Amino acid sequence: MKMKKDIILCGVGGQGILSIATIIGQAATEAGINLKQAEVHGMSQRGGDVQSNLRLSTDPIWSDQIPTGQVDVIISMEPMEALRYVPYLSPSGIIVTSSKSFVNIPNYPDEQALKEELAALPNVQLEIEEIAKELHSPKSANMVLLGMAAPYIEILSVDQLRSAVATIFARKGDAVVEANIKAFNKGVETSSL
Amino acid sequence: MEKRLLLGDEAIALGAIRAGLSGVYAYPGTPSTEITEFIQTNKEAQERGVRSRWCTNEKTAMEAALGMSYCGKRALVCMKHVGMNVCADAFVNSAITGVNGGVVVLAADDPSMHSSQNEQDSRFYGKFAMLPIFEPSNQQEAYDMTASAFDLSEKLGVPVLLRVVTRLAHSRAAVECGESRPQNQLSPATDNTQWVLLPGNARRRYAQLIDKQKDMEQAAIESVYNDAVTISNSESAKPVGIIACGIGYNYVREALSDIRRTADANYAILKVSQYPIPVEAVKQLADASSEILVVEDGQPVVEEDVRKILGATYPVQGRLTGRLPRTGELNPDNVAQSLGMTNAPAFDPAKNLAARPPQLCQGCGHRDVYGALVEILKEYENARVFGDIGCYTLGALPPFRALASCVDMGASITMAKGAADSGLFPAIAVIGDSTFTHSGMTGLLDAVNDKSNITVIISDNLTTGMTGGQDSAGTNKFEAICLGLGVEPEHVRVVVPLPKNMPEIIQTMREEIAYNGVSVIIPRRECIQTAARHAREKNAK
């Protein structure tokens, strides 16, 4: 069956966006799905906004960047960063985001207004940092987010993504793998409610 | 065949290793840095003893590569586009000497200036030096072309330019990786008349380079990377001709990927990934088409050529005519638009949005340097701080707003000198450790010789920070370098940039500004990013 999914991963430099990309990339490679993943390096990593265009398809992929209006899922570690890419969202697309603002600029928008604007868009949001803390694994907040997004990625199954989490963290030992799988599962569970 | 998920940069690196590379010579620069980093940590490269240490600047890199080539071995030179300006002397003259072992010069261009101060197009340098250019459209071509470029370099006896743009350099895709070719044996050149560019020799070599132009074009005509593709469901009218260069080809194909379902679509595409531009193919495309649209990322290099080839009356569209934007990178939206299609947004842009510019890290030593400078700036009416290229360029932004300029590698010291020569006081330069050894040392010597009244701050974080923490050429040598260049020993001052040392740092700056001559202050503390990395590495052991 033909299928394609265009994803934007975004957040603030240092929030762990690129490890989400690595895991989806691993799962796609394992599943034999075509992939292009464009990422930002250099200056933008210094506390600035960071994004990665991730394209998955059973057909060959041409452009490394996703056209306007075609993104299926925006996966964001930060609510305002999710809003930055709204023009790219397809009519049937969805935003999966952390609900917690990361305020490192003086002119950060009014949080209530931001919340309302986000609520008017197709979205799933969660206090991922809080959940990760409750799981005694604050560093796994990005895996909670990936778990939340997993049911919407569709071209890869939740199981395929979970197994990629294990593969990517294997190098760091069983405890780290377990903590990240737990965070991932919690995310899946919450978004499926 | 082995399939690997690789960045465009990594595909070039692995392609070079498998093509029998003996050395990579490079200075870090976004978006080219990952090529050399990949080679430095690659097991195959280590087993083969591929030389891969960072160079002091792009010129020393280019020259060392030429020396390796002289000895018959294959060398790769990597840099960002503006690095081509630094190595231009060596690069242009290497076209006259030609090569013995293959030389590939990789220039990573940055249209849209994601991390650069201009969007110059390196293909102009290729044309200027009269050399073949390769421009991959995707990661697989990046891998394959690196080997092709080495082969062509040795076949024609000239260096070959390989040009990528940010979007390919920093995008990942699966690449099929072939077998390794052995490295070349040591076989130093024996014909000195080729390599000694005295005018008599150089005139002969230049004539030979011009002779080779037809061979370069023939190679482009026969190239597997240049291709003619027709996308059509209609024979009613002449097609629109498209010349799609490098990554531009992808955006064209993206825009036309659904076109088979629409009526009367008729496009004839000439994909160009190897230059010089094949003239006959352009003429044939023009004859068969109603107009030509040139889709190229960067500056209108090919568009200008095509206009010359087809004459003033033929309709050629592109960046010069406004069909595509004159500035900024190509993307799937502006290329679709140039083909008369619209990628419409389904949702309006968000209202509650603010720019989030990059910042100096919390705890970074540069912060303390600027904290002190901001205080100093209050004390003198005409104080100016001339900046340079690195993380510390961010000192131009709030909360510091401390910089008067940032132009090119090393310009802080020389601009401060020129300003001091004009009578400006105090004229202060801020330059990073790696940038200082790259291009600041010669300017400092000028200032010493002229007894210029400047204060130079070499903000030493023991690394090349902005590109991700590569080794810095001058680490542990800065006091010796400054003394060697003739700065008075009592005016080479070292401080530790920490908030608790602020009074001492400010006092040191005051004293050195008051000294009428060249003084150097070296605030030295390791980059917090590399310090954290070193701590992790130590724990892992």
Written overview of the protein:
Chain A is an alpha/beta fold and 193 residues long. Helices cover 42% and strands 23% of the residues of chain A. In chain A, strands 2-3-1-4-5-6 form a 6-stranded mixed beta sheet. In chain A, helix 1 packs across helix 6, helix 4 packs across helix 5 (141-153) and helix 6 (158-169) packs antiparallel against helix 7. Chain A is globular. The two termini of chain A are 28 Å apart. The model of chain A has no long low-confidence stretch (mean pLDDT 93). Chain B has 541 residues and is an alpha/beta fold. The radius of gyration of chain B is 26 Å and the shape is globular. In chain B, the strands form 4 sheets. Chain B has a 6-stranded mixed beta sheet, with helices on both faces. In chain B, strands 8-10-9-12-13 form a 5-stranded mixed beta sheet, with helices on both faces. The mean pLDDT of chain B is 96. Chain B starts with a strand and ends with a helix. Chain B has helices at 8-18, 33-41, 43-48, 58-70, 83-86, 88-97, 123-129, 139-156, 166-169, 192-195, 199-211, 213-222, 248-255, 279-288, 301-310, 332-338, 365-379, 411-421, 433-449, 478-484, 502-514, 528-540, and strands at residues 2-7, 21-26, 74-80, 103-109, 133-134, 160-165, 171-177, 227-232, 240-245, 266-272, 274-275, 292-295, 316-317, 384-386, 427-432, 454-459, 492-495, 519-523. The interface between A and B is large, with 52 and 50 residues. Strand 2 of chain A pairs antiparallel with strand 7 of chain B.
